[in-house]
Amino acid sequence: MTGDDAASWAASGPASPTDLLALDADLTAAERRTRDRVRGLVDEHVRPHVARWFADGVFPRDLVPRLAEAGLLGMHLRGYGCAGASAVEYGLAMAELEAGDSGIRTFVSVQGSLAMTAIAKHGSDAQKERWLPGMAAGEVIGCFALTEPTAGSDPASMRTTATLVGDEWVIEGAKRWIGLASIADVAVIWAKADDGEGVRVRGFLVPTSTPGFTATPIEPKLSLRASVQCDVELDGVRVPADAILPHHPGLAGPFACLAEARYGIAWGAAGAARDCLEAALGHAAGRVQFGRPIAAFQLTQAKLVDMALEVARAQLLALRLGRLKDTGRLEPHMVSAGKLANVRSAIEVARTARTILGGDGVTLEHSPMRHAANLESVRTYEGTDEVHTLILGRYLTGHQAFR
Fold first, then answer.
1. What are the sequence ranges of the domains in the chain?
2. CA dist., res. 326 & res. 382, Å (int)
3. I want to staple 202 with a disulfide (CB 3.0 to 4.6 A). Which of 5, 44, 48, 193 is the partner?
4. Are 367 and 281 in contact (CB under 8 A)?
């Protein structure tokens, strides 16, 4: 290729500038259909309104039926009205939702990857029949209550207890940063209980209308403003003996659900990063300074290239995790690698994109600063950077460094 040919090719631009490595070609037709369907939903029902939702601190309840109709609630589960999608299809959906806003992806993750997965993996047949069809249809909203005011990264130190009194469990304690709790119909509550084989962490299905259950939204927030996170008080909450999740006692129960959510986050963060890159590219092409679009300046191009490389790496990592998951080869440390690396990258991409947008970048007219704020929460929940670093450190060295 001659110099003139190369310049002409570069000037024409790639067919998809945010698919630097042509990953689209490695997706199946079904995977592309899922991605495009969810992207269309986000373009029509999220993007036009999300800035106002974020500014007002409002979660759009009327979006839930649309998410359900699209098969996105518990979409990785099979039966009970769930879509039974592949891991890659689920991941692509999370990427598109988070390209819209982390708060919307968070709703789908809490509902499907946490609450519904807890019931599907650890519940009885009767519990699955009672709750999962309504949750898949968006008629029942669930929450997942593990984190406590004094037990975040160290859930083994939780203080919430469940005591069997006659034929009822009595639950006492407090939870914090519980997504969807104030709008949920059922809560998966994790508590320490003597289940006849010693005191272990167990899950309980608690209708939120139960006396003694109180959920209070945490405000004001600077992040995830189009979502709901709550403090939960459990004051003598009584549920029947069969409210306990019968399978997989101990911390393995909630950790299995967290692994599902972390997997979705790895994809979601890649979607947020891609959206920031697209915003920066669009602005750079149209913003003229010193008689030229700023996209023509070397410093701007360097930023765009750095962002494009991070987006490509995040997409590659997410797709690799998905292929491993679909073949049953995904291991916990791999999920930690994806969550840690992709959220880190997405935050840096969002911050760099904001600089290209200049002063306009601090307004809600543009997405990067909103994404950057949201990603600080994403970075913290489902395992902080420090926790995932130590998980990977343990894998590499064989030494436990948590204590």
1. 13-136, 142-249, 253-397
2. 22
3. 193
4. no
H/E element, 171: strand 168-179
**What whole-number distance in Å separates Cα of residue 34 and Cα of residue 84?**
12
Residue carrying the six token digits 């209708």 = 207
Which residues carry out catalysis? 382
> What residue type is 288 in one-letter code?
V
Enter the pTM of the model.
0.94
In one letter, which amino acid is 73? L
**Residue range 362-390, pLDDT digits in tens:** 999 999 999 999 999 999 999 999 999 99
> How far, in Å, CA of 242 to CA of 226, rounded?
35
| CATH number of 13-136, picked from 3.40.50.300, 1.10.540.10, 3.30.1540.10, 2.40.128.100 | 1.10.540.10
- Whether 81 contacts 90, CB under 8 Å: no
Q: In whole angstroms, what is the distance from residue 144 CA to residue 156 CA?
A: 16
**The tokens of 378 are what?**
């994403």
142 burial via Cβ count (<10 Å: 0-12, 13-18, 19+): buried
Architecture of domain 142-249: Beta Barrel (2.40)
